[in-house]
Design goal:
CATH class of the largest domain: Alpha Beta
CATH superfamily of the largest domain: Phosphoenolpyruvate-binding domains
Radius of gyration: 27 Å
GO molecular function: kinase activity; metal ion binding; phosphoenolpyruvate-protein phosphotransferase activity
Number of domains: 3
Bound molecules: phosphoenolpyruvate, magnesium ion
EC number: 2.7.3.9
Enzyme class: transferase
Helix content: 40-55%
GO cellular component, one term: cytoplasm
Strand order of the largest sheet: 1-8-7-3-4-5-6-2
Structural class: alpha/beta
Organism: Gimesia alba
CATH architecture of the largest domain: Alpha-Beta Barrel
């Protein structure tokens, strides 16, 4: 049994057989075979190994003829490895003694060698590990056939393990079969992590190097509460996790029963709790959990899920579905936030352009550069706004000029729609996200012109602290409790109050229970959280008084180190609602 620690990004606990992506690319469907077929399975292994040897020998001939003997020698070394009697014997022994399937046994043996080579302390040899991985792939291809496992075509439940998953790969996960996922890289608020929350799949990221410790088909527990994965758990550990799963389900049921109770503080202040969504079907999840509306609809996922550019009708249909499902509750549609880690297939060039894509042509900057793209989306939003309470929000606004340009495009779009003679609603609120420090610093000026603010703490933290939100190497520096963040939020709230415009917090900070008293104390009366967190966020609000929240915020503002603010807030949360949390379920 091996325990690995990473960053918990989507709560819940699940276990199942591992499907390793990235290095394996093949799915190992069976870990064991029955005793009576062992000889047949060994024969299958032998013919697969022979086929691999033939394939490599052919490569050796080709490389030697075309490129010279020295290149052929690379394959000669591979051939030597695969035809080594010791390797064959090791795999056979695992099949005979442990009843492992040839695929599982081979994967285990190759991975053991990969690991040994990686840890010899010699850089040149460590690089040879990729040769062994390549041999493993060749053998698995022979044993399993050509078929590469498509994440979207799964047929049995598995735990997905990968070096990394892009947001579009994550969006394509078949939720009914993916019990959990874990990746070597990734950060707390990377879009892959946010999606895991949206799909409600327990997930751990930023685990560091672990794929060579595991083979496809091995049993794995993903503990999305504590940020751990457990490889090959023993019976006792497995039983403990089954029990945790049960208790969590009963806690969720208890909260679900209270979902219709309004989120109002004990002294009668209403704090609206909205939901963040990426897909139209999530409106239902928000409603089931008692959300007051949709505070952030990340529309770029329309692009990330598709191979072709969505037409105006595709946008319109998606927005109408959201409006219909929201049943008159407000919906804030954010215009495209493409770029950085959210790159659709047709826009791969964006990823290559700059060294720092998070500082590059992303988000509203991209929309302003590609006006047909921007206008298509805006037309669809104004048309859908006929059917419900729709609002528009521009992401990543950094300067007043950018805001004014975006508003000008809105003017053009309204004229187009007028000319076309279609039904549309021109009178809808238009606001902006405050997620760039420059915008927070100029909040008073912006507040003169916008209809509302929504504070995007995910990017605000990244840009204020200069910490890549998806890089585990700097994740300890990424902290929503940093005094600089508290000050920026306070500035934005004060500017909004002064000009009498609404202000929401929609970054992950608003799903983090310990931050709720602080935000309420800073004057936030609207929160937009990930759907899973909504019942608990509402529960915390119902345990609060504004007076206490203001004291907590005032005290937090006097602390000068993020870590101390964090532990203070955590302590206060426990005092405010001790009954809400099971001691063993960390927040
Ligand atoms: C944010 O930056 O806080 C935000 C809500 O936007 P996203 O996470 O989509 O970048
Ligand atoms: Mg953002």
């Amino acid at each position: 049994m091996l325990v690995k620690r990473g960053i918990a990004v989507s709560p819940g606990v699940n276990f199942g057989p591992a499907l390793i992506l990235g290095t394996e690319d093949f799915r190992i469907p069976r870990q064991f075979v029955s005793v009576n077929v062992i000889e047949t399975e060994i024969a299958r292994l032998k013919s697969a190994l022979d086929a691999v040897c033939e394939e490599i020998a052919e490569n050796e001939r080709l490389a030697s003829d075309k490129l010279g003997e020295q290149y052929g020698a690379i394959f000669a070394a591979h051939l030597q490895m695969v035809s080594s009697p010791r390797l064959r014997e090791e795999i056979e022994t695992l099949i005979r003694e442990k009843c492992y399937s040839p695929e599982h046994a081979s994967s285990r043996v190759f991975r053991r060698y990969t690991k040994l080579v990686q840890h010899l302390g010699d850089n040149y040899l460590a690089e040879r590990a990729s040769d062994i991985i390549d041999l493993e792939k060749r053998l698995l291809k022979q044993l399993l056939g050509e078929k590469r496992e498509e994440l979207s075509n799964l047929t049995t439940p598995i735990i997905v393990l990968a070096n990394n998953l892009t947001p579009s790969e994550t969006a394509g996960l078949a939720k009914e079969f993916v019990l959990g996922f874990a990746t070597e890289v990734g950060g707390r608020t990377s879009h892959t992590s946010i999606l895991a929350g949206a799909l409600e799949i327990p997930a751990v990221v930023g685990l560091g190097d672990f794929l060579s410790d595991i083979s496809g088909g091995d049993m794995v527990i993903v503990d999305g509460n504590n940020g751990e994965i457990i490889i090959d758990p023993d019976e006792e550990t497995l039983a403990k996790y089954k029990d945790t799963g049960e208790r969590q389900r009963s806690m969720a049921a208890r909260l679900a029963a209270r979902r219709k109770i309004r989120s109002e503080t004990k002294d009668g202040t209403r704090i609206h709790v909205m939901g963040n969504i990426e897909f139209p079907n999530e409106v239902e999840h928000c409603r089931e959990r008692g959300a007051d509306g949709i505070g952030l609809y990340r529309t770029e996922f329309l692009y990330l899920q598709s191979n072709t550019e969505p037409t105006e009708e595709v946008h319109y249909d998606a927005y109408c579905r959201v409006v219909q499902a929201a049943k008159n509750r407000p919906i804030v549609i954010r215009t495209l936030d493409l770029g950085a880690d959210k790159i659709p297939r047709g826009y791969r060039h964006l990823a290559k352009e700059g060294m720092n894509p998070a500082l590059g042509l992303r988000s509203v900057r991209l929309s302003l550069r590609d006006l047909p793209l921007f206008k298509t989306q805006l037309r669809a939003i104004f048309r859908a706004a006929v059917h419900g309470d729709v609002r528009i929000m521009f992401p990543l606004i950094s300067t007043l000029l950018e805001w004014r340009q975006a508003k000008m495009i809105v003017g053009d779009v309204l004229e187009d729609l007028e000319e076309r003679g279609v039904d549309f609603n021109p009178n809808i609120p238009i606001g902006m996200m405050v997620e760039v420090p420059a915008a927070a610093l100029l909040a008073e000026e912006f507040a003169e012109e916008v209809d509302f603010f929504s504070i995007g703490t995910n990017d605000l933290i990244q840009y204020t602290l200069a910490v890549d939100r998806s890089d585990p190497a700097v994740s300890p520096l990424y902290n929503s409790s940093d005094p600089s963040i508290l000050r920026l939020i306070k500035m934005v709230v004060e500017a909004a109050h002064k000009k009498n415009i609404p202000v929401t917090v929609c970054g992950q900070m608003s799903s983090d229970l310990k931050s709720i008293p602080l935000l309420a104390g800073l004057g936030i009366r609207q929160i937009s959280a990930t759907p899973l967190a909504i019942p608990e966020v509402k529960e915390v609000i119902r345990h609060l008084t504004i007076e206490r929240a203001e004291e907590i915020a005032a005290h937090a503002m006097t602390i000068d180190v993020a870590r101390d603010v964090e532990s203070y807030l955590r302590g206060e949360l426990y005092k405010i609602c001790p009954d809400l949390f099971d001691e063993e379920l960390p927040l």
